[in-house]
Amino acid sequence: MSYGLRKDFYQSKVWKDVRKTIWLKQNLLCNRCHKPVYVDGISDWIPKEKRRTGIVHHKEYLTDLNISDDNITLNEDNLEGVCKECHEKEHHQDMSTRKGYEFDESGNLIYN
Ligand SMILES: [Zn+2]
Ligand SMILES: [Zn+2]
After folding, report:
1. Which end of the chain has fewer surrounding CB within 10 Å, N or C?
2. Structural domain tally of the chain?
3. Which numbered ligand comes closest to the C-alpha of 80?
């Protein structure tokens, strides 16, 4: 049931808008390795072979309890734009040992 909620959130317009704001603020650069990332509809000019997927990461991870809390989900202070590689590093540090977590094709962490 939590998966449905989070899926709805990631597909919501308000989330897409916030995501865009974050990327524009960061000039489409990963906040950790500073490489340019590809974001749908903003950076279509980046050649295909140079595209790294950009993911907006929640510093305080989304859970069933905070998924409806705009102060967590949409708070720019809680958001960080990173590339897919850096995002996986971040989560694998403490998620790899937890059962049931994996990434969907957009790089969002989901719980099965
Ligand atoms: Zn990076
Ligand atoms: Zn994340």
Report:
1. N
2. 1
3. 2
